[in-house]
């Protein structure tokens, strides 16, 4: 049985505490984003999977659709608070295995700022999990600048996760959105973060882009060159340099093609491991991990950095607890 070596730190892992799962099911989220089901999750089952695959620790976040399925700002704020408290309880039960990436009740910026203060100040969250957009307000929108400033002031670790894009009904052709549309929405949001200047104005935020950079490796040069030609005046943004500073998780299918393409945009020092559990079921997590363990696209030093070393720098609290 092949295990990840060194034992990985997982920066793309999800949790569905009971209060969140019950609310999601009560509001029609039994097949989120066209998925076949809303998966079950328990801390014990997650730890068992981690032991099997060779994952030392995982930073827990809420996947799509987050709390956006709730109609009122007050309901979204209450559920985000419940999610974060339940995540903190999981961390307290398994302090050496879990970290918490707090959920925010966006697009209500004031409520999100209050939740940042609570999550970091009271729950000792390890970072924040953001989604590509919140009811059409995409990352990079100037309305989110106060949030970006607050995250920058904390040098926060911030992971990005896609949700179904605006207008998905017309472009997904009835297929589950994680198949294609998630990758394009990630690309859309990250390009907007860069071209809007957010990545340059708030340089202390430590971003993690999911799914091996989505379509960014294929589109980065096109956007960098053509945008300045057709949208003068050209933005004072070095897009390639900005994207090269971000971190990228390997959740999903990084091999055989996506990872080699990403290495043309970002160095191995920017790569981290991601399982996408439980939306990727445990047997598939193992299969994908075995592919990463066997690849020669990364040499031994780069593979060790990807699985463990790079995440240690991003998540120092949890890294102190990890035994490699």
How would you concisely characterize the structure shown here?
The chain has 324 residues and is α/β, with parallel strands linked by helices. It is 45% helix and 13% strand.
What does this structure look like?
The chain is α/β, with parallel strands linked by helices. It is 45% helix and 13% strand. It contains 14 helices and ten strands. The strands form two sheets. It has an eight-stranded parallel β-sheet with strand order 1-2-3-4-7-8-9-10. It has a two-stranded antiparallel sheet with strand order 5-6. The longest helix is centred in the N-terminal third of the chain and has 21 residues, at 73-93. It is globular, with a radius of gyration of 18 Å. The mean pLDDT is 95.
Radius of gyration: 18 Å
The helix tally amounts to 14
Mean model confidence by pLDDT: 95
N-to-C CA distance: 18 Å
Computed structural class: alpha/beta
What's the main sheet like?
A: 8 strands, parallel
Q: Return the CATH class.
A: Alpha Beta
Q: How is the CATH topology named? A: TIM Barrel
Supply the CATH superfamily name: Metal-dependent hydrolases
Assign a percent range to the helix content.
Answer: 40-55%
Proportion of beta-strand residues = 5-15%
Poorly predicted tracts of residues: none
Q: Please state the overall shape, judged from the principal axes of the Cα atoms.
A: globular
What number of domains? 1
Domain Amidohydrolase-related: 9-316
Catalytic activity: 6-methylsalicylate + H(+) = 3-methylphenol + CO2
InterPro entries: ACMSD, Amidohydro-rel, Metal_Hydrolase
EC number: 4.1.1.52
């Amino acid at each position: 049985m092949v295990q990840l070596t060194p034992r990985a730190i997982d920066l793309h892992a999800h949790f569905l505490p009971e209060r969140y799962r019950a609310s999601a099911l009560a509001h029609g989220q039994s097949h989120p984003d066209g998925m076949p089901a809303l998966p079950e999750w328990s801390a014990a089952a997650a730890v068992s999977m981690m032991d099997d695959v060779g994952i030392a620790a995982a930073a827990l976040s809420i996947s799509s659709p987050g709390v956006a399925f709730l109609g009122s700002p007050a309901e979204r704020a209450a559920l985000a608070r419940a999610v974060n408290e339940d995540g903190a309880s999981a961390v307290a039960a398994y302090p050496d295995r879990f970290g918490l990436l707090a959920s925010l009740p966006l697009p209500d910026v004031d409520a999100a700022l209050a939740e940042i203060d609570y999550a970091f100040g009271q729950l000792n969250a390890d970072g924040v999990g953001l989604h590509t957009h919140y009811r059409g307000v995409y990352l990079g929108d100037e309305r989110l600048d106060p949030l970006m400033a607050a995250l920058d002031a904390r040098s926060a670790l911030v992971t990005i996760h896609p949700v179904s894009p605006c207008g998905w009904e017309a472009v997904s052709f009835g297929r589950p959105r994680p198949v294609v549309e998630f990758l394009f929405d990630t690309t859309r949001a990250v390009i907007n973060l860069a071209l809007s200047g957010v990545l340059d104005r708030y340089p202390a935020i430590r971003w993690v882009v999911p799914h091996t950079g989505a379509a960014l490796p294929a589109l980065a040069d096109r956007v960098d060159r053509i945008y300045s030609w057709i949208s003068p005046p050209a933005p004072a943004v070095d897009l390639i340099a900005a994207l090269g500073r971000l971190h990228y998780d390997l959740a999903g299918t990084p091999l055989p093609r996506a990872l080699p393409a990403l290495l043309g945009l970002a160095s191995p020092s920017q790569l981290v491991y991601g399982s996408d559990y439980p939306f990727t079921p445990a047997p598939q997590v193992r299969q994908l991990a075995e592919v990463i363990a066997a690849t020669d696209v990364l040499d031994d030093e780069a593979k060790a950095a990807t699985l463990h070393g790079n995440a240690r720098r991003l998540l120092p609290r949890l890294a102190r607890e990890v035994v490699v």
